[in-house]
Amino acid sequence: MSGAAGNVVQAAHIGSVTFTDPGPRPVVPAEAGPPPSAFVNREQQLAVLRERAASARPAHPEVIAVRGMQGVGKTALLRQFAATSRDLFPDGVLSVTFGPQERAPGEAAASLLLGLGVAERHIPSTFARRVALYRSLSADLRLLVLLDDVTDDEQVTALLPNSPGSMVLAAGNRAFEGLYADGALDLPLGALSVDSGVRLLGELCGGGRVERDPAGARDLVAALDGLPLAIRVAGGLLARHRDLPVARLLADLRGGDGTVRATVFAAFDHAYAGLADQPKLLYRTLGAMAGVRFGIEVLAAVSAGTTGAARANLAELVRVGLVEEDGFDSFRLHRMVREHALHRSAEEDDLDTRRTWRRRAVRWWLFGAMAADLAADPDRLRVADPESVRGERAPDVSAAAGLDWLDREHANLLAAMEAAAEEGWHAEVCRLFEALFALYKTRKPLSAWVRAGRLAVDSAVLTGVAETEARCRCLLAKAYQELERYDEADEQLIAARGLVAGGPPRFTASTYDFTGNLCLRRGDDEAALDWFGQALAINRDLGLVRGTALQSMLVGRALGRLGRIDEALDMCAAARDAVTGGPAAVLLPKILTSTGAVLERAGRVEDAEHTLSTAVDLALGDGNTADAADALIVLARLGGAGAAEYRDRAVSLLERMGSPRAARVIVGGA
């Protein structure tokens, strides 16, 4: 008999007998590696994992698919869970890392068998036999199997242990549709919040560095966009260089220099280098274009290719962790990845090419915004010719769908405005802002409204077109009015009226409309009535149905506040009749709210409640939260059993808009 080297005894007649050493005693595998030295803000995910591990399961192991972009902390989560859940897996932890080079399945299966104590010489030669042996050995065990850097669903399904008491954590950069179909749980990981990032930074660098400069630490984490990989690199630098101020590290980062950026970019370079030419080109395109989140359509437009090609190339970027999936057919670039993509584009593409990509992106979002704006409010005054976008987008879009698109793409549209301003495409900046007014006046994200408005006014001045500048100033003034910054609103409107004096009467009427609204908000009802009356006369002379209806309503609102109830109700009724059933019907919630307010002043509570309830239903049906809030405020003033509920609903909508009116409504004012 023979075996490994050991003690050999010679004996007559029988030859030799070899007594081998027994070798190392079997041990419980613990292959996850040590947990991270600092770990924060994944309590929810760890709780989910422990709950699923402890719960009873059918005849198959629990599979959890952990997904997130490169550097977001997937491996750290796997190791932390392995370190804190030994009690749940008495038979140990096995671990395989696939990586961008896509480790061969046979090699992965051999690694698992070695972890289960199979001697290397006893590992079968074929993949099928390795898997069969692995399943036999894992039967009835309670194992935790970690599969990191997974790039394909089959890498997971081929290596599932044959035990319902086991759990498999598969981590990768993309969604695992095949695993979900088989019952796997999707567990996405995102970047850290600023607070959590600061905690991580403090644990890494120690020495009270964060406590001595909390503002600098928060700025540093924000600049790193909460990416754990980048925060760990920064924390390591601060730990090694005790005399390095946080502010200096932040300045280096913002200046495009320093070890943090270089280290993180090196990781991205590794992923980029393994791509084919077309996915590389798409990656550089993403860096050069405007926008925060993006879909297949805009990628195809910017790259001047087909949606099929864009989808295929994007799948490669997701696979290597450079792009994150953000929902169905929706994707995003982490801030530092975008900077890396811009860096690669600057290295490999000329300026004209990058500008072409950016112009295509701005144009795509501009036409989308204008089409959505047309759907939301077809007949509103616009400087830009709305007919220029007909046919660019599907015409059968509802008002609510148009508003939802503007809301969903809002961050991208702001980014497109900023990109256009940087490039000197000032007319596009103004057109984007004008298109966003449909969203701003109905949902009132006030901070963003002011930011966009200031940018648009600056660009409008540079266009040299009086009507464009006047329009942008009026729309910005409306935002200031909603924020109760009345002097700033008045300043914009004075300039706007001067710009269009003696010009096209429709634009003159519009400046009167905005001025009257400001007077009404300030409580100067007589002045408001005068401005609205002048605007109404101009719209009647021009034969404009929408403008006449809107100004009739506003005249009625001012008359009601002056106590001229019958005249007010007549004007509101005329406005309602003019828009019912036509393209200007989007004004109905506003007209009914004004009517309800007049009925309230007349003491006709039941009529007011019915009218205002209809206004709320219509407004919410169109996605118009601003008009809904206005109607709810008047409903709350009527009193009765539902007053508190109406007030709470109004406050919720106003707080979402960032309106200072919310505080007054809470205490019973308007």
TrEMBL record:
Disordered as annotated region, ranges: 16-36
Classification via InterPro entries: NB-ARC, P-loop_NTPase, TPR-like_helical_dom_sf
Pfam families: NB-ARC (PF00931), TPR_12 (PF13424)
Domain (NB-ARC): residue spans on this chain: 60-161
Top-level taxonomy: Bacteria, Bacillati, Actinomycetota, Actinomycetes, Pseudonocardiales
GO molecular function: ADP binding
Pro residues: bias regions: 23-36
Protein name in UniProt: NB-ARC domain-containing protein
Species annotation: Actinophytocola xinjiangensis
